[in-house]
Amino acid sequence: MQTRPILIVGSMAFDDLEFPVPVPDADGTARTSFVDVVGGSATYSSLAASAFAPVRVVAVVGNDFPESALDTMRSRQIDTAGIERADGLTFRWKGRYHADLVNRDTLDTQLNVFANFRPKLADGYGDSPLVLLGNIHPELQLEVLDQIRKPELVVADTMNFWITGEPKTLAKLIERTDLLIINDEEARLLSGIHNLARAAKDILSRGPKGLIIKRGEHGSLYFDKDGIFASPALLLENVVDPTGAGDSFAGGLLGYLADHGTYDHATMRRAMLHGTAAASFCVEAVGTNGIRSLEREHVRKRVERIRHLTHVGEE
Amino acid sequence: MQTRPILIVGSMAFDDLEFPVPVPDADGTARTSFVDVVGGSATYSSLAASAFAPVRVVAVVGNDFPESALDTMRSRQIDTAGIERADGLTFRWKGRYHADLVNRDTLDTQLNVFANFRPKLADGYGDSPLVLLGNIHPELQLEVLDQIRKPELVVADTMNFWITGEPKTLAKLIERTDLLIINDEEARLLSGIHNLARAAKDILSRGPKGLIIKRGEHGSLYFDKDGIFASPALLLENVVDPTGAGDSFAGGLLGYLADHGTYDHATMRRAMLHGTAAASFCVEAVGTNGIRSLEREHVRKRVERIRHLTHVGEE
Predict the structure, then answer these.
(1) How far is CA A224 from the centre of its chain?
(2) In chain A, whose CA is at the least distance from the CA of B238?
(3) Which SS3 state, helix, strand or coil, does residue B9 take?
(4) pTM, 2 dp
(5) Alpha carbon B193 to chain centroid distance?
């Protein structure tokens, strides 16, 4: 069986990051403040997914985005032909993490070239069997979806901003989504229901075959007609930078699915563990340092550690 | 092999409870406010544990405590000879739950007869092989422990109030504890470390062989020298009243251990699921309504549901 290619649309960005304690850079220097860190949802997702499958990226960067970052992607079976280099500056996000490394304040957002982003699929992208619609305007997510001829699996991410601001467009997208990935607060906001089991039922009634609810350090949940799966998170001793963890999760998950070509409940359970493992590598280093050399074997070993966390033998 | 008896010391109380939405009483009437609900850590723990093992309770109640509640306990292999009926009113707690059914405000606490509680072990209690030291003053927990001749397993619960207010006495208790059960915030406070993996290591270095960190709706974690186990919580559609969930967890866990008489890592994993199952019954009804008829078979069935939540087949 051939590994299927994954089309990923999302943001590519510079992140300026502030941490509560000094953390090591790639070269080992420890500091609390990092600027021009290459990030964005498409960057994280594609780096993680490419440990398992070929990836095609649809995104936009500015004149200032380093060619070396694109070279890194190309060295990992990531097709960058769909990454438009527009005249202007790359999207920039500046954030400060709290002491818990969970909560964070956005200090600045500069849309720059992302403000006028209209996703353009490169030649051949229209036949992509797996599609990951990263967290961008649902109108753009639909625009990408319209250009895919016959997707086997459509996965979408979204956020509070679109749930509140674009409910009708988002509803259309969700109807056409096979697998929706959101966090617990987003699930509550989208459904209007606090209880997660009931919120999940409500969301599944709106179209998607599957729903993943991410709970950060508490792991994640998968819901479909065949049941519920709970993936624990690994208990890491050194969590450094949670930026991109959710996108790495989606990338690892889709990579596994693309490599298997089946999307049934049992496969989804294993895919969840692969997403969890990819995310665990992401948070152990600043920016993409934890995942840009990620190999299938690293992920597999960590999946076994995660499985062992919940293993219960027979009496 | 004979099931071992468990000695449980803790509070017995009246709880006045306020909920964000109307919830059904035992007779089906729905309301948001309940008064004189029989509660307390010893009550919840002993009801849950008695689904598996004989229980001996050491506690104090006032003149106003209903004999019928003690009759219910006695009908479930709970020895109430250690429950002292003191002259005065029973300990009373009044709380109001927030909409998330997790956070709550304490509106009133009346210690009453609990203020002068000195645990007295009834005849024969001194040979108890399993001991659950519920969340009371660590001085009293030590006083009970001193009266047990040769305990096989000493389990202790505590809280922020004692961690901050009685650190030295608590340290003595923890040193003599085999298994400490606290929640995530208490683990962080006790160790002074935010990261749970490192907090657990620190706490284990203070004496206990095992540590359980409860995370409410996110499940619980078990740490010992042989590894880490993560138990998910069941995703319940109808969470009504979380009061006593942690105590029911401890009761279910100890009940399982008493029934097996081994306390190794593999047994602890199964015991954690039994605690989780007992807690899940507790939160589905007001007060002790969800657990006062709890049978071993109910728990076993739910344990299978919890196991299935994290089950991942081979590829």
Answers:
(1) 20
(2) A195
(3) strand
(4) 0.95
(5) 24
